[in-house]
Amino acid sequence: MKILVIGGGGREHALAWKLKQSPGVNRIFCAPGNAGTAQIAENVAIPATDLPALARFAKGTHLDLTVVGPDDPLAAGIVDLFVAEKLRVFGPTKSAARIESSKIFAKELMRAQKIPTAKASTFSDSDEALRYCEQLQFPVVIKADGLALGKGVIVAPDSATARSTIDSMMNEGRFGEAGRRILIEEFLRGSECSLHALVDGKNYRLLESARDHKRVFDGDKGPNTGGMGAFSPANNWTPDLQSQLEEEIMPPVLRGLLKEGVTFRGLLYPGLMITSDGLHVLEFNCRFGDPETQAILPRMKSDLLPLLEATIDGKIDNCTIEWDECVTVTIVLASGGYPGKYETGKPISGLDKATKLNDVQIFHAGTRRADGEIVTAGGRVLAVTALGSTMESARIRAYEAVSAIHFDGCHYRRDIALGAVSG
Ligand SMILES: Nc1ncnc2c1ncn2[C@@H]1O[C@H](COP(=O)(O)OP(=O)(O)O)[C@@H](O)[C@H]1O
Ligand SMILES: [Mg+2]
After folding, report:
1. Which has the closest alpha carbon to 150: 21, 291, 55?
2. pLDDT for the residue numbered 279
3. Ligand 1 centre distance from Cα of residue 282 (Å)
4. Is 405 in the pocket of ligand 1 (CB under 6 A)?
5. Which ligand 1 atom is nearest residue 187's CA?
6. pLDDT at res. 150
7. Radius of gyration over alpha carbons of the chain, in Å?
8. Is the pLDDT of residue 422 over 90?
9. 278 CB contacts (<8 Å, ≥6 apart)?
10. How far is the CA of 154 from the centre of ligand 1 (A)?
11. Element (H or E) spanning 40, and its range?
């Protein structure tokens, strides 16, 4: 089989790495990929957002399957295009992807299906939003409706922050169209957790739980990033919470989508807040998480390919997924200045040494090859995953691998999974 993975981050390296282990696969392509995917697959120089060029490549190469990594090609309708061209593809259609690409659509669906989520009001007029703020108790959470590279959610501790956030989103167009409509919602207290589900339209299979670290600095300080690390399983996940997810969240969301005439096939990943009052959905994502995927897939014993195929074919009910008993810790190495401005092109050393360590898997994110060297090419540069029998041993191993790797300006959090170490 010939497979294309669309995207060029750590998630896509992990997907390509896992699919490569499938006995049915003989060629893997990544578009555009990175220096890591180049070592296990063939990189194709097409941006993840150039839908017509991707479809032409898929046709010309007689691909058997395309797996879409990032959210923007999904929101732009890549799956609809591929299906129209009779190309086999893993991911939701444009209308199904609205569950992620419109937080207002998702909120209305949750409300209609009585899915537990933060109470929220929707605004398309900034004066109305500003007036509404006058009567609120703070903090509140302000969310741009559309995709905003993980930067469209602001927790406003006071009215001044709320006003300036509303102004920058709705009047100054900080996120373009994505911020023209907003949600102002109740601030929930608790701890977060990510669950991934392979959804085949009707049925679904959950993957193992994970948690990520969004803030840039230790102790959850500093601005939000795309994710500075993750671990799996989540230390706050329990069988009771799983029952709640499987009763009050998963079936209703699929029912709600079907009621809208939407069949969701692909990966659905609710971001959850565990509150004193049980689970609440913060958002739905319609693709694999980054960096959660880099923590989850190394624990998956089953072949991923038949699971993706069964999801596309509406047969996930026939599948069981086997998991390794081990736990994983994933640490993201970022460029100096990230998530703000950063430079690229810095040579990376120590990758060979780190790769040789047992039970360590290095996934590339923002890397490329230049003059025979691997250099930095993005904000998040590498995701280093280590396996262990305990969180403590996985952490030690992960940080050992990290300390072997160097590049100018490299920074990472020292407290990934620290809260999950028992004793
Ligand atoms: N209602 C809420 N209460 C408290 N924190 C929230 C709430 N909604 C979002 N957050 C915080 O903001 C982060 C980002 O919000 P989310 O809805 O997941 O959007 P996105 O991932 O698209 O930026 C969450 O991971 C959580 O930490
Ligand atoms: Mg989120």
Report:
1. 291
2. 98
3. 6
4. no
5. 3
6. 79
7. 21
8. no
9. 116, 241, 244
10. 8
11. helix 37-40
Mean pLDDT of the chain: 97
Q: Is 286 in the pocket of ligand 1 (CB under 6 A)?
A: no
How far apart, in whole angstroms, are the C-alpha atoms of residue 123 and residue 410? 40
CA–CA dist 307, 204 (Å, integer):
11
Asked if residue 300 lies in contact with residue 324, where contact means CB atoms within 8 angstroms, the answer is yes
Tokens of 340: 């703000």
Q: What ligand 1 atom has the least distance to the C-alpha of 283?
A: 17
What is the identity of the amino acid at 213? Answer: H
Q: Is the pLDDT of residue 423 over 70?
A: no
CA–CA distance from 93 to each of 11, 67, 73, 271 (Å)? 20, 13, 10, 20
User: What does each C-alpha distance from 138 to 153, 161, 162, 262 come to in angstroms?
Assistant: 15, 10, 9, 36
Q: Tens digit of pLDDT for each residue in 233-264? A: 999 999 999 999 999 999 999 999 999 999 99
Measured CA to CA in angstroms, residue 182 lies from 99, 111, 165, 178 at distances of 15, 16, 10, 9
CA distance 351 to 364: 10
Rounded to two decimals, the pTM is 0.97
In the reported structure, the alpha carbon of residue 226 is separated from the centroid of ligand 2 by a whole-number distance in angstroms of 9
- The answer to whether 202 and 265 have CB atoms below 8 angstroms apart is no
**Ligand 1 centre distance from Cα of residue 287 (Å):** 17
CB of 384 closer than 8 Å to CB of 333: yes
Confidence of residue 396 (pLDDT cuts 50, 70, 90): very high
Q: Does the structure show a pLDDT above 70 at 5? A: yes
Distance in angstroms (rounded) separating the CA atoms of residues 240 and 331: 29
Ligand 1 atom closest to 186 (CA)? 1
Domain annotation for the chain: domains and CATH numbers: 2-91 (3.40.50.20), 119-186 (3.30.1490.20), 191-318 (3.30.470.20), 327-420 (3.90.600.10)
Residues 6+ positions from 414 with CB-CB distance below 8 Å: 218, 399
Query: What's the gap between Cα 56 and its chain centre?
Result: 27
For the CA of 118, the nearest ligand? 1
Crossing angle between the packed helical segments 94-101 and 103-112, to the nearest 10 degrees: 90
Look at residues 113, 103, 115, 63 and name the one whose alpha carbon lies nearest to residue 85: 63
DSSP calls for 94-160? HHHHHHHH-HHHHHHHHHHTT--B--EEEES-HHHHHHHHTTPPSPEEEEESS--TT--EEEESSHH
pLDDT of res. 222:
93
Is the CB of residue 188 below 6 angstroms from any atom belonging to ligand 1? yes
